[in-house]
Each structure stands twice: as C-alpha cells, then as structure tokens.
UniProtKB/TrEMBL annotation:
Coiled coil: none annotated. Residues 10-177 form the Ap4A phosphorylase 1/2 N-terminal domain. It comes from the Eukaryota. It holds the Pfam family Ap4A_phos_N. This is Uncharacterized protein. InterPro entries: Ap4A_phos1/2, Ap4A_phos1/2-like, Ap4A_phos1/2_N, ATP_adenylylTrfase_C, HIT-like_sf. The lineage of its organism: Eukaryota, Fungi, Dikarya, Ascomycota, Pezizomycotina. Residues 210-326 form the ATP adenylyltransferase C-terminal domain.
Length: 338
C-alpha cells in the first residue's frame, strides 16, 4: 500500500485495479470511452508542446432532459453519491472512494471523490491532498511497471471547467494520455506541462514563463501530508493575491471554506501547480477571421498541456494556426491569462 502520514492508503496494485474495472465497465456499457484524434501544437515562442484532441462523438454526449413546465424540481443526479459497484474501483478509508469516469476521453480515467457530499468550491482539506498523492505514489511504485505515472487535477469555481458540485479530484494515467502521439508531428516533444514548469522553476512559488499564469512548487519525495497541504494552501493564497492584490496579508485570505477565486490545481509525483482562472475559455475564429467556429473551454488538463475540441472547424482552425490557442489563453490579461 502507498501510505501517507494521515494513514490514507491506496492499493499497491491500483493500476491493475483501475484497468480491470475500466474494461469490465466498458464491456457492460456502464461507461463510454470516446475515440479521439490527436495533434501536437507548439504555439507562440514558449516551445511548449500542447496536445489537441478532437472527439466529434463527444458533441452527442447525452444530457439530462429539462423538467416539463410546472414539474417539481428534482435533485440533480450525483455520480459520486452511491456509485454503481461496476463503476467503483476501490474505497480509500476513511473519507474517499475511487470511481470511474462515466464519459472518458482518456482510457482508465478515474476519480477520487469524497464519501460525504462536500462542495467542489471549497478549499481542499489535508486528507483530499493526501488521498490524491497516495494514488500518485501507488502508480509510480507499482512493481509491474516502474515507469507509470499519474496526473491529478482539480477544477474549482465557475471559470475552471468544473461540472460537478460534489468534491472530486480527477486522475489520468500519463501512459494513456500518450495514446496516438507516436504518429503525431512533435508527438515526442509532449510531456506533462506541470512537470516541465516545476523542473524549470528554481524558486518556490515562481510564476513560470508560460502563456498563462501558473504558481508551482516542487514536491519532495516522502513529504508528509500536512506539508503537501500547506504547500497547496500557500499556492492558493498567492493566487488569490495575484487576482486581488489588495489582499496582501497572509491572514486576509482564508485557507479553508469557500474559495475566493476559480482555479485549477494539478499534482504529479514531483510538482504541484495552481492556475488562477477568470474565464473558462474563448471563442476562436476561422483562419480567415471571418467566421466564429466555436468556443474552446479549458479545465485542469491544461496543466498537463492538453486541450479538447468537439467540432471539426475548431480542430482545423487550431491545427492551421496554433497561435489561436494562445488567443484562448490571452482572452483576459488578468490572473489565468496575462
């Protein structure tokens, strides 16, 4: 078991548990894994490689029907409350459960959710960070393949790409994120951007030279859970002050309760990165600039260096002019975009 100082343990065979559960649930029709095409773009002068994935089938993803006029308002469906046994990977006592993502773009995408219903918009607690990092360690430490790594991300707030109000952290096997890259131009250049940013930053909490504002901290091997949580809270408070410079005192920004801003958090085995958000994305135009071809929305996977589009016009426009992706980043010059 991969264990942290709070006693939270992830199964040592977590990669094989996730793989087996994913394949069984997909065969039973309990989840959908959408096929994608992939291109690797190098927008602007940063030299950073970004994955662009295109999934036309995702545009037809089922949506809940609106209630008829006058009908009693029903409680929204919560996929993390009492999940189907086929969608459950493992329990992480005392407070978390691992479940599969019902609508996956990356195979074996799974989710760390709180057992009790807690708000996605609140600052994460120490056990949330500890449970996520225990999963990351379990992937790296798995005896069958020492090269396995896990990318964890958290979307919080209306501008972050968050879609479920029940607190959850999403987990993506990096090996699965590489699918299709062997045939893509610049595919060999792609790696998880959070790790690139972390390794290029010599100073704690540095704003790395990227087309969007990101605060990073290196994770020391064997760091206790409380230290990891303190690092996260520090990054969060600095991000609040980045958007609200009037809040300059440490005590002026609460490290618990309702979050003051929208943001994305990413964690890998070696890096923690936090990206303040003031917009979910932007509308892009055709190569001629005469036609709007669709909105591009970004969530925490941007800290892995990935973006997703659902229609062919967006796919073509971004591949023809990768700098349009910078236009999405630069839609607003405050906070997330600068």
């Amino acid at each position: 078991m991969a264990e942290d100082m709070l006693g939270i343990r992830a199964p040592a065979n977590l990669p094989s548990l996730v793989k087996a559960a994913f394949e069984k649930a997909r065969a039973a029709g309990d989840l959908t894994c959408y096929p994608t095409q992939v291109a690797v773009l190098k927008p602007g002068r940063s030299g950073i490689a970004f994955q662009l994935r295109f999934s036309p089938a995702l545009a037809s993803k089922p949506k809940p029907n609106p209630p008829p006029p006058g009908a009693e308002k029903k409680k929204p469906f919560n996929p993390f409350e009492n999940p189907l046994p086929s969608m459950t990977v493992a329990q992480l006592p005392p407070n978390h459960v691992l479940v599969l993502n019902k609508f996956a773009i990356v195979p074996e995408h799974f989710i760390l959710a709180t057992r009790a219903v807690k708000p996605q918009t609140h600052v994460l607690e120490a056990d949330d960070i500890a449970a996520a990092y225990a999963c990351i360690r379990a992937y790296h430490d798995d005896g069958k393949d020492r090269s396995q790594e896990l990318f964890a991300f958290f979307n919080s707030g209306p501008h972050s790409g968050a879609s479920q109000p029940h607190r959850h952290i999403q987990l993506l096997p990096v090996a699965q994120m590489r699918a299709g890259l062997d045939t893509a131009d610049h595919g060999a250049d792609w790696s998880v951007v959070a790790d690139v940013m972390g390794s290029s930053s010599n100073e704690k909490d540095a704003v790395v030279d990227m087309p969007f504002a990101v605060l990073t901290d290196r994770i020391t091997a064997g760091a206790p859970a409380k230290q990891l949580h303190a690092a996260y809270v520090h990054l969060y408070k600095d991000a609040v002050r980045l958007l609200h410079p009037e809040e300059i005192n440490e005590e002026a920004v609460a490290g618990a309760g309702e979050a003051r801003i929208s943001y994305n958090l990413a964690m890998t085995r070696t890096t923690m990165a936090l990206c303040p958000r003031v917009a979910e994305g932007a509308t892009i135009r055709s190569k001629s600039g005469e036609e709007e071809v669709g909105p591009v929305a970004l969530n925490g996977t941007v800290l892995a260096g990935t973006a997703l589009v659902k229609n062919e016009a967006e796919w073509d426009a971004l591949r023809e002019d990768p700098d349009k992706l910078l236009g999405v980043f630069e839609q607003n010059r405050r906070g997330f975009f600068y």
